[in-house]
Design brief:
This protein is of the alpha/beta class. It contains 7 helices and 15 strands. Strands 1-7-8-9-12-14-13 form a 7-stranded mixed beta sheet, with helices on one face. The protein has a 6-stranded mixed beta sheet with strand order 5-6-4-3-2-15. Strands 10-11 form a two-stranded antiparallel sheet. The chain is globular.
């Protein structure tokens, strides 16, 4: 599929993740934005749950009055029958600017030298202890696709996790390649951190049993490969999921993980483009 290039010239954008507004209220979040000077808001998922995320997005946009770009996180699929059903509903309402879900097929041109691409992304079960992990997340109880797989056994659960993650990575790759060919800096918005070194809990590296559920290992491998193939380009990944703030950089690949706390939604950082 040929990526859709959308021009959205900005001075800067504000990055946030893991708002979990079902533990708070959209106004609590938007009130914290009053001291920021920003041209667009970019959210890396976990806005609410399947039955509330759309309403929260509408309320946020009405309050801020600037473009809002986002991906969905795992919690945004809670209490839904299927991932596909949630995406169909969200994309029907938020398929164009000024409020747009990045679904892997768009390239947002932010300036002559910078672009933004994005996809929801999933923990793929490959990192750390892998299928031998003793940990399980509520995802396997509250997300229909994962719940049905888990009911068939661990092997099916991990196969479904890999399928969801790999499908999103494959969807993103064409847009990422085109963006890397045209822009000096490419921002990649996704929910789950792509490298184990960026997965932390309470300030410490995540335990091996946690890593299968907090790292998109396959996406990380692809990003590292593309960074080596395009040494003159800068790849900046913006994500969340772990709630533990982290910034990591090696050569031309950089990862920002937003911090978060239930009940206290806040923005993470301004990225300047000029």
């Amino acid at each position: 599929m040929t990526p859709n290039i959308i021009k959205l010239p900005l001075r800067n954008f504000l990055f946030a993740s893991d708002l979990h507004l079902n533990h708070s209220h959209p106004q609590v979040f938007t009130d914290t934005l009053e001291h920021w000077d920003y041209d667009a808001l970019v959210i890396a998922g976990d806005i609410g749950s399947a039955d509330s995320a759309a309403a929260y997005l509408r309320q946020i946009h009405a309050a801020i009055g600037v473009p809002l770009l986002f991906v969905l996180g795992n919690h945004d699929y809670y209490h839904a029958h299927s991932v596909g059903a949630v995406r169909q509903q969200i994309d029907a309402e938020f398929g164009t600017l000024p409020v747009l879900r990045l679904n892997g097929t768009q390239i947002i041109e932010l300036s002559s030298s910078a672009a933004l691409v994005g996809v929801d992304g999933w923990a793929d079960g490959r990192a750390g202890s892998g299928e031998h992990s003793a940990m399980r997340l509520n995802d396997s109880f509250y997300i229909g696709d994962l719940c049905r797989a888990a009911n068939l056994g661990d092997r099916h659960l991990f196969a479904k996790m890999r399928q969801l993650a790999d499908a999103d990575t494959a969807t993103l790759k064409p847009a990422l390649l085109v963006a890397l060919a045209q822009y000096e800096t490419v921002y990649v918005l996704t929910h789950v951190p792509p490298l184990t070194v960026t997965c932390r809990y309470l300030g410490n590296p995540s335990e091996p049993d946690a890593l299968p559920f907090f790292c998109n290992f396959g996406l990380g491998e692809e990003l590292q490969r593309l960074a080596k193939l395009h040494p003159q380009r800068q790849i900046k990944v913006l994500c969340g999921h772990t709630h533990d703030r982290c910034h990591w950089r090696r050569d031309n690949l950089e990862v920002w993980v937003a911090g978060a706390e239930y009940g206290y939604p806040a923005a993470e950082k301004i990225f300047n483009l000029r």
